[in-house]
Design brief:
243 residues, alpha/beta, Rossmann fold, seven-stranded parallel sheet, 8 helices, globular, oxidoreductase activity, acting on the CH-OH group of donors, NAD or NADP as acceptor, NAD(P)-bd_dom_sf
């Protein structure tokens, strides 16, 4: 399905990074992976050993990363902004403005930067896909999580705007918007093992359970494949009926 595709994914050790990398390499893609931990050579080596077909990058700046891949491969077919950052809880009158700036920087500004860099090359190639793995949270809003929800909402809007801007170049831009998906970044083990807390979480989900990483990986695979070539400008919810 993804034979010879060159794919870049961010925050590869978080959110849907490992699952996405596994399903894409299994389908024949070469996956270049970014993560803050990859400044450490041992972390890069371990990731590449765990998921054959991946190339972990030491570089952190979006411009440097894109230029390195283009220099080696000549193209990037798919850019996946799998940006992860803690959903910090704070009432609006108690929120720290520095926390808000860091949230926006990690969940929206960095993705914008990556999209800016890859779009230059995709426009020349006349094809490409940019996928933001965002959140369904902005659909309804979540009290006391306004910093996180606002940043994710900005990313969803960014995907819709870029789709209209880049469509003429045969570049599809979408946002995969999960919520209530198994992930230690947002649902740590100690939370899930708390029976009362788990019941409270799942009571909000019409399907009555968390989504699995495997289910999310299948959805991601479809969105980065040629089977989704006529889908662009969409915020595609993956939340068990919550959104």
């Amino acid at each position: 399905m993804l034979n010879n595709k060159i794919i870049l994914i961010t925050d590869a050790l978080h959110f849907l990074g490992k699952t996405g990398s596994r399903v894409m390499t299994a389908e024949g893609a070469t996956v270049y992976a970014h993560d803050a931990a990859f400044t450490d050579a041992a972390a890069r080596k371990k990731f590449e050993a765990d998921i054959p077909g991946t190339k972990a990058l030491a570089e952190q700046d979006p411009t440097d990363i894109v230029e390195k891949i283009i220099a080696g491969e000549g193209r990037i077919d798919v850019m996946i902004n799998n940006d992860a950052f803690p959903a910090l809880k704070a009432a609006i009158d108690e929120a720290d403005i520095g926390d808000f700036r860091r949230t926006v920087e990690n969940l929206m500004v960095r993705g914008f930067h990556f999209a800016k860099e890859v779009s230059k090359h995709m426009k020349k190639a006349g094809r490409g896909k940019i996928l933001f793995i965002s959140s369904a949270a902005p659909k309804h809003g979540i009290p006391n999580y306004s910093m996180y929800v606002a940043a994710r909402g900005g990313t969803n809007a960014l995907a819709q705007s870029l789709a209209k801007e880049l469509g003429r170049y045969n570049i599809q831009v979408n946002a995969l918007a999960p919520n209530f998906v198994e992930s230690p970044d947002y649902f740590p083990k100690e939370l899930l093992e708390n029976e009362a807390a788990f019941k409270k979480i799942t009571s909000q989900i019409p399907l009555g359970r968390l989504g699995t990483q495997e289910e999310a990986g299948d959805y991601l695979l479809f969105l980065v494949s040629d089977k989704s070539n006529f889908i662009t400008g969409q915020v595609l919810y993956f939340a068990g009926g919550w959104a």
